[in-house]
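Materials and Methods. Structural model of UDP-N-acetylenolpyruvoylglucosamine reductase. The 102-residue sequence of UDP-N-acetylenolpyruvoylglucosamine reductase from Candidatus Uhrbacteria bacterium GW2011_GWA2_53_10 was retrieved and submitted for structure prediction as follows.
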Amino acid sequence: MYEELKKLGVTVKANASLARYTTFKIGGPARVLVLPKSVDEMVAVLKWCDAQDAQYFILGSGSNMLVSDEGYDGVVIHPEFKAVSVQDDELIAEAGALTVEV
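The predicted structure was written out as tokens:
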């Protein structure tokens, strides 16, 4: 799983502690943690997960979230694209944008 996701060109970590990604700083390892840096990378990862019927979870900012010390035996996707922009009368916030920045 790790090697296959790495071939997509995204940042992938095996057995990564999820404590670093939650505000409570607790939680065991994810079998695979994927850190897409763009919408295109996110789409590629989601398509791969669907094609492989892989169990996955999208982790936002990790606030108000408890992760078991046993971790997650699947793919955790943590978007790292966080841009916020205004175009005409529309506010566009990417998946990883924090509410305080919006």
